Amino acid sequence: MKTVTSISGGKTSAYLATHYPTDYNVFSLVRIEDKGAAFPDKKIRQIVEDKIQKQFIATAEDDTIIYTILDLEQHIGRKIHWVSGDTFDSVIEQKGGYLPNKMQRFCTSEMKLKPIFYWWAETISEPIKMQIGYRANEQRRANTMLSKCNEDGLLEYKATFEKHSNGNNKWEQIPWQKPSFPLIDNAVFRDQIENYWAGQTVRFADYNNCVGCFHRNPLFLRKMWDKHPTKMDWFESKETGPKNPNWRSDLSYSQIRQHRPQFELDFSDFSDCDSGYCGM
Known about the structure:
By secondary structure, the protein is an alpha/beta fold. It folds into 2 domains: about 1-195, Rossmann fold; about 220-275, no CATH class. It contains 11 helices and 8 strands. The chain has a 6-stranded mixed sheet with strand order 5-2-1-6-8-7, with helices on both faces. α9 crosses α10. It starts with a strand and ends in a 22-residue tail after the last helix. Mean pLDDT is about 90; it is low at about 265-270 and about 275.
């Protein structure tokens, strides 16, 4: 069984790729079409386009993540396969303007998992062992993922590669990956990971995953407006659809943007759960 490491762009999955080598490493890039938030370095933008074989204008994540993956590839001395699905804009349009939310988090499945699955189907197309970057204190998350496996211990993905004679898509449940958790198995905690990267040259964002993720604390999102105003403006601009017009049920992003905190908070004041934590 071939092995694959899913890299999210954070320190944990980067540590996993460094210390537990696999046959393949794969990173899925979330793209948006907002030219106002365009990645500033045109040469790097071209490098990314060459890797994903698609147009790259901007990412919904911190721009630093692009440098993270480029640095990490040099650090581990092995190729990282870049993949990217439809843009976030296109995914929302395909859903009829419906925005993802805490109950229906299709953004992760459409823009992280789906492109990795289709890369697997084209590149490997046989069941793999997929290394997931859950740390030693995240056994509950691992158990949740394992509970979704079939009787052979494999996660399945509903996909279509052909059509029925009537022209409709032919959907199949395809067993494709057996999750593994080396950091849990080897009792690796956050402090070990932080200590390792403290002496390295790989650049990391303060937080990976989409800067405007609706799972994040509203105060955190307000701080993101100070750091990533054009990207956060993009998130706010999407709250106009006819179905489920807001990312959250409690506050609109326009209300969050207008909020003025009465005291200063640092990003370190927020836990992983407060900050989205949607990476694989």
